[in-house]
Amino acid sequence: MAGINKVIIVGNLGDKPELKHTGAGKPVTNISVATSDGWNDKETNERIERTEWHRVSIFGPIAKNVCEYLDKGSKVYVEGKLQTRKWSDDKGIDRWTTEILVSGYDAKIEFLDKRSSGSRDARPPTDYGYEAVSYTHLRAHETSLHLVCRLLL
Could you tell me if 39 and 46 are in contact, meaning their C-beta atoms sit under 8 angstroms apart? Predict the structure, then answer.
């Protein structure tokens, strides 16, 4: 029986995205997304917050849009799968990295920021001042994007 490998996070970018290209010339962007969790300590009733950082690798045309429209602090919805890969550092020591991979037909990223009134960006506007822009691969063998604009409630 096949398993399910799906990750969904909502958080804020830790830095400005930077577009790179693979050896085959395909666009890729790596971002760090912070998610926060909070609770009240049972003994002291003090509020405790914990921030978790997630590496996200975005491949294909979605990567270009992430670089063009997002910035440090931007709020995003990320849907992808976990992937662990091996790499070697400068000293030749093997390292392992686990990241969220946004690529393929089941990958999705939504831009969740409120659009500022003086904004000149090229994102499709809504009449309500809020927008979520979703980029999803329609099929694994196509590089088509599906663009959806909707009101955030």
Answer: no
DSSP state of 138: S
**The model's pTM:** 0.71
Both tokens assigned to 26: 């395909």
* pLDDT, tens digit, 9 for 90 and up, residues 74-98: 999 999 999 999 989 999 999 999 9
Which residues make Cβ contacts (< 8 Å) with residue 152, sequence separation at least 6? 112, 130, 131, 132
Q: Which helix (H) or strand (E) holds 28?
A: strand 27-40
Alpha-carbon gap, residue 19 to 21, rounded angstroms:
7
pLDDT per position as a tens digit, 95-130: 999 999 998 887 899 999 875 544 445 444 333 333
DSSP three-state, residue 61: helix
What amino acid occupies position 134? S
What SS3 class is residue 32? strand
